[in-house]
Amino acid sequence: MLHLLTPEAQPPNPNFIPPPEKAPELYRDREDRTETAPAFTYRVYQHWLGRGLARNHLLSLDRSLYDAIYNWLKKKPLPDWLDLPVLTDLIDRQLAEMGVKEGEMLPHPSFDNGMREQLRLYHAAKTRARKKENK
Q: pTM of this prediction?
């Protein structure tokens, strides 16, 4: 039923942690060259695994790691202990946690009262500025 609330009224998901903006460590710069891509991913990103990090995030964080995971997946699947979903699977999980069933829609986000008031004043000022220009 939480999905029936407007997004502003929904409680934050305690399991979601935004991915880091910068890679804590780069795969190509790792000291132990025998460390596999899954083991490196777990060691460096374990704080975010299963909590919002998707495979596509690695593309912008660490291209060498993304490529290594891609090559790994050509030969074998990721280990069960490495929770690194593709983005669509991550979104499916997040919707399921909110209680949204397949085919259901979320309500469109609404502006809170403060934002609505700021927009009203912005448009009023814009209209007045246009009227002044036309005189």
A: 0.67
